[in-house]
Design brief:
203 residues, mainly alpha, 81% helix, globular
């Protein structure tokens, strides 16, 4: 009976993960019209990316509250995600001044580092433990997809070479934004798992 329950949980987890992957495709498909008009910064895809990374940052904030032994590390991750959110919101912040996003990003990054320094003994060891954990595999994979794979596979140079005269920036935008959304979904999924584990350690 125990083995059957384990198998059932694994199947349900696979179904959930597959659904999340399909969800990314559905959102991008819905957004093709907006991207054709050059409005990708205000598309549902972009908004979904921002919601994912905002939720991930909030979850790590709560994880830092619940798991005192890993508080410093969780605050650093929260700061990273908050900085990524600000970078994703650069179109809105550019209305203040072009490149303005750098200032709040630096402020949050510095604040996270300074706070983490106050939490002695809750950064290095928890970082080693968590970075090698099953939950963080999803986060690490998501970050690699966002920061590396989406930039390389979705580069205009690659698709110009492939498509030649038929190349359009719309294809590059759809591909890159879709891949990024998939990465953000993985980051959020892993963040939820980390939060659930931290919640169990709530004092």
């Amino acid at each position: 009976m125990q083995h059957e329950n384990t198998i059932t949980k694994m199947i349900l987890k696979l179904i959930l993960q597959a659904t999340l992957v399909v969800l990314a495709v559905v959102i991008v498909s819905f957004d093709v019209g907006s991207m054709e008009q050059g409005k990708s910064e205000y598309s549902l895809t972009e908004i979904s990316q921002e919601i994912c990374i905002l939720a991930a940052a909030i979850l790590f904030g709560f994880a830092a509250k619940y798991d005192l032994r890993a508080r410093g590390f969780f605050v650093l991750v929260m700061g990273l995600f908050a900085t990524m959110l600000i970078r994703e919101s650069d179109a809105m912040l550019d209305q203040i001044q072009h490149g303005f996003w750098v200032f709040p990003a630096l402020f949050i990054s510095l604040g996270a580092v300074l706070y983490a320094r106050k939490c002695a003994g809750t950064v290095k060891i928890p970082m080693l433990q968590h970075m090698d954990s099953k939950n963080f595999v999803y986060i690490n994979l998501g970050l690699i997809i966002i920061l590396i794979f989406s930039r390389t596979f979705g580069s205009g140079h690659l698709w110009r070479e492939i498509m030649g005269a038929d190349y359009s920036t719309v294809y590059k935008t759809v591909i890159q934004e879709g891949i990024e959304l998939l990465g953000y979904i993985f980051v959020l999924y892993g963040s939820i798992l980390v939060w659930l584990d931290a919640f169990k350690k709530k004092p």
